[in-house]
Amino acid sequence: MTKTLAVTVFAALSLALTACSGSRHEATEKYYLVTVNTKIPYWQVAGQAFIRGAKTLGLQAEVVGPETYDPQAEVQEFKSAAAKKPSGILVSAADPNLMKEAIDSAIAQGIVVITIDSDSPASKRLTFIGTNNYQAGLMGGRLLAERLNGKGSVVVFTIPGQANLDERLQGYKNVLSAHPQIKITQIVDTKGDRRVAFDTTTEIVGKSSVPDAFVSLNSTSGQEIADVLDRHKVEGKIVIAMDTDADTLNWIKKGGIAATIAQKPFTMANFGILVADALHHFNLPALDGKFAQDTLSPVPLFIDTGATLVDKSNVDQFMKEQTSAGTN
Fold it and tell me: What's the CATH class of domain 133-262?
């Protein structure tokens, strides 16, 4: 109830602020979205939503970050944005530990910081907006166990140490713990590089025994896995992907991917800038308050944007809705 109430309050506050004249904003007010892999479709959708939300509010906004997966470079982009004294920053923390100090420093300077997609829970960020990644892992794990009929070997593609992916993996593991005949035989660190996923899958299918299933916990591996299996004419394998770029959805239509778990990057970024702007004008007594422990906190710890399972039964409708919304 506390989370629901907080979300309702945020929504009402944001709508009230939006309804006000754009003149309430100072000419110097600006917001940044800092992410990693800015060229991948997932973050391009988020970036479009962020800019769209800013225009609705009459705000300046900019999306920054490295064009390849580089957590160190992302931290530097965050620091550069913070040095310009913006009103707020949304950030997806590729490495939560690396990002912590930069987030805490920005908060100390009075800059509203919200994490989206991937959290930095030990930092002083005000709230996290994104998927309940553990629940997404449970969703994928249940489907995997069903498709494997309770027995088989699995290879998982992930980026160890990235909080959201670790939570997804834990969800999968907890489901599979009830199915002792399903074994995760290999965990592949893709380092955020789709070429690693392609090359590693190629190595795996070249061996005498190919795993029964492949699970991708990030948005860039599922298509590569499906491509390699198709090239090598490996059939009958279960592939479960993450996110909904065009290639992933097309592979579902062709049968190369069994299903994917759809997140809401548009919602994360679009609602995120509304919340950041509301908090900036809300004038909290202090940005570095212990909101996670405070039972009277005006800031929720986590806003769940939800996740959806997409497979052959609903992929056409999903693609149609994405196209009509202008996010595909």
Answer: alpha beta
